[in-house]
Amino acid sequence: MRVNIQKSWKNQLKGEFEKPYFQELANFVREEYKNNTCYPEEKNIFAAFNHCPFNAVKVVILGQDPYHGPMQAKGMSFSVGPELDHPPSLKNIFKELEKDVGKPYPQSGDLTSWAKQGVLLLNATLTVREKQPGSHQNKGWEKFTDEVIKTVSNNKEGIIFLLWGGYAKKKGRLIDRKTHYILESGHPSPLSANRGYWFGNKHFSKTNKLLLELERSPIRW
């Protein structure tokens, strides 16, 4: 696996790439991509970082696994290619966005525009085997992405972390709550959303309100 990650992130995380666990992870990923269909495309594994340099990060949205359907995963949590149908969680994200800030339901599920404005769309696991959700968990990705979260927490101030669902909320332990903001809610998946744990969280307007208070430009969701 080639670590084609943006320079500012490479500088922040350079020690991680030399550690034994990451070397083992890279070997595992290399073999998986060689012998199986995996997502995202290898060139997009670090897309979340490449579209949102370290110095530009204002907001972090944490996901768990990449999409495991054909050509869905593009290397950013919850984002899909502009030509694809929206997965259920993304549909609920857009429905809440529509209710919260009045933005018409988007045609494209490509969230690159969010990333380019400073939203780090980070999955805990960056790769997956086709049609096998969780197949690349516990191989080292979580250790790496936990380090990413800690690096953001320790080296920046006033970052807004959106933690959706139980898995993401557990990552709150890695974040300094004295210097950052954490917004929590249920997950946008239908199971959680239909039980009333997602809709009405108003995370998009709350995020922009905080950014304005910090004298930073709001996100054009």
As a percent range, the share of strand residues is 5-15%
Global mean pLDDT: 96
Distance between the termini: 33 Å
Please tally the helical runs, counting DSSP H or I stretches of 4 or more residues: 9
Order of helices and strands: HHEHEHHEEHEHEHH
For the secondary structure, the number of strands is: 6
Q: Order the strands across the largest sheet as they lie in space.
A: 3-2-5-6
- Judged by helices, strands and strand pairing, the structural class is alpha/beta
- Low-confidence stretches at least 5 residues in length (pLDDT < 50)? none
Radius of gyration: 17 Å
- Percentage of residues assigned to helices: 25-40%
Largest sheet: 4 strands, parallel
Shape: globular
